[in-house]
Amino acid sequence: MQRLIAQVLHSRIFYLLASTVLTSVFWWSAFHKLWNFEGALGEMAHFGLQPSWLFASATIAVQLLGSLAIISASRWAWLGAGALSVFTLSTIPLAHRFWEMQGMQAFLEQALVQEHISLIGGLAIAAALAHARRQTT
Length: 137
Hints:
Helix content: over 70%
Distance between the termini: 24 Å
Strand content: under 5%
Structural class: mainly alpha
Order of helices and strands: HHHHHH
């Protein structure tokens, strides 16, 4: 049984599936913004990010290229993970200001912040695994 688990954990397919799931929040968001670019512009304007077309375009690019770098386990996986981590961290003071809220709204936003921090940890692990995969192949 241990051998089977080791084979699964080391397989390219497992890495591909796990990294796709890990980054799904980013590529789904990017595709949604592409399909509804006007909505993406409105979102950027809502958070005071001007020019909104530039921030929307940069967000889409970071989300897609960062995800692709991680999923492909390329030599740039660390950069993709870093860019997505900085992006994720930057959304906290922009969109999840739980410290300025009360009650259930504060609780829910704080939970989102905790999920963001966990996601950053997952991205770091994915970068390390991509590096390790390249060293052993």
